[in-house]
Design brief:
By secondary structure, this protein is an all-alpha fold. The protein has 18 helices and no strands. It is globular, with a radius of gyration of 21 Å.
Length: 432
């Protein structure tokens, strides 16, 4: 019988090796969330110490976003050539080194440079972990596990937010970057020893000693070794950006990009402006500080719930419904203004927008074959991040025009519902 890794993984219980790979990927995305958000937590202290304007710090935030965009577009695709594990190692090294170096920053220019480079690592990390999770999980539960791995991001954001208050006040903002950088650097041996390269990657790309590496993995998973690598040519479906636009992938690729563009626009509008919007809505200053944490806590539950229902009812239907219901909540947001219950509404918004948004990562990971899976995921994330750049900027203009909170939410309900509708119509045969 012809050896087929897909059938082997689909029809067997998940092994300890697979669980270890998923846990390491989850942990790396926790570090992603910590490394991205630590600048937000440190920003007030940096502004006070240096006497810099919010506009200057805005440039620092933007440099990180641009770094993540470039990382997803141009660095992540190399994982299809050098392997997911090597790219995850490289991404962690970039993140850890530059986050640690941030603690020595003495100017805005320094911050802009190191945040851009750390963004490169974050962008490629997200794409590579999603691809690896997809390649090590059974077809039936793949959507849940990809969502689980990405859910590490808001967990890291919440935990670093809870820790940063005491650390920054007691030891200064530099200490937070030192700790975040050291934790990420320490993760390198964890990746090296406990993360396993994709079986599909070894079979399709056939690097040096591929057969020996494949058999080591198979034996650890409880399967028999094979005598030779299946004759699937590594030339088939060569990984490249052009592959995303061949006749089988052109339409679903554009549909996925559009859905992610609208989802990113709303997500980054909310994450950028939630504290200010909360105080404008009548929430006390103390409660407004917790809105970001509540939003990200809601996000984790939303991601896990989406993953569970996607495995049962299909990705497109689950994500589409979540986005549309989130849009309805945003449209009726006015009903909650003036009440402390609004804090729970922000949690529900995190549940909905992040749950649906992360589901689109699972769509990308399922839609593309191994040969250019990380390229496909990376470019989908990169295209979506354009919405992440535009969304907060437009939101700032709308807020500056004096539009009410409920009007802003009503306006951003439009891209949210469009993301849901576009998801429902993604035409890939690989996505249910």
């Amino acid at each position: 019988m012809l050896f087929n890794t897909k059938n082997l993984i689909d029809n067997s219980p998940i092994s300890r090796l697979q669980y270890a790979t998923l846990i390491v990927c989850f942990f790396m995305n926790m570090l992603d969330g910590m490394d991205v958000l630590v600048i937000s937590y440190a920003a007030p202290a940096i502004s006070q110490n240096w006497g810099v304007s919010p506009q200057a710090l805005g440039v620092v935030f933007s440099s990180g976003l641009f770094g993540m965009t470039f990382g997803a577009l141009f660095l992540a695709p190399f994982a299809d050539s050098i392997g997911r594990k090597n790219m995850i190692l490289l991404s962690a090294a970039l993140m850890g080194t530059t986050v640690y170096l941030t603690s020595f920053a003495t100017s805005i220019y320094w911050l802009v440079a190191v945040r851009f480079v750390s963004g490169l690592g974050v962008g490629s990390m997200l794409a590579s972990t999603a691809a690896l999770a997809a390649e090590y999980t059974p077809h039936k539960t793949k959507d849940f596990w990809v969502s689980f791995v990405i859910s590490g991001y808001p967990v890291g954001a919440v935990l670093s937010g809870l820790a940063s208050g005491n650390i920054i006040v007691r030891d200064g903002w530099q200490s937070m970057f030192e700790i975040a950088g050291i934790i990420t650097i320490i993760s390198l041996p964890v990746i090296y020893f406990f993360l396993t390269e994709s079986l599909d990657f070894y079979i399709k790309k056939q690097p040096r000693d591929a057969l020996e590496k494949i058999n080591i993995i198979l034996i650890k998973m409880g399967f028999e070794a094979i005598e030779k690598i299946p004759s699937e040519s590594s030339e088939k479906n060569k990984g490249s950006i052009q592959s995303l636009f061949n006749k089988d992938f052109r339409t679903p690729t554009l549909q996925l990009w559009i859905a992610l563009f609208f989802a990113f626009a709303t997500l980054y509008f909310l994450t950028s402006w939630i504290p200010k919007l909360a105080t404008n809505a009548g929430l006390s200053m103390k409660l407004a500080i917790y809105t970001g944490t509540v939003f990200n806590a809601g996000a984790w539950f939303g991601i896990m719930t989406q993953g569970y229902f996607s495995s049962k009812y299909g990705l497109k239907k689950t994500i589409g419904v979540i986005f549309i219901l989130t849009a309805v909540l945003m449209a009726i947001f006015k009903m909650f203004i003036g009440s402390d219950a609004i804090l729970y509404v922000f949690g529900l918004l995190g549940f909905g927008i992040q749950g649906g948004f992360v589901g689109l990562y699972a769509v990308a990971a399922r839609m593309y074959p191994t040969e250019f899976r990380t390229t496909g995921v990376g470019w989908a994330i990169g295209a979506g991040r354009l919405g992440g750049i535009i969304g907060p900027a437009v939101g700032g203009i709308l807020i500056g025009m004096g539009l009410s909170l409920s009007t802003n939410f009503l306006i951003y309900a439009i891209p949210t519902v469009l993301a849901g509708v576009m998801t429902l119509f993604i035409s890939s045969r690989e996505v249910s």
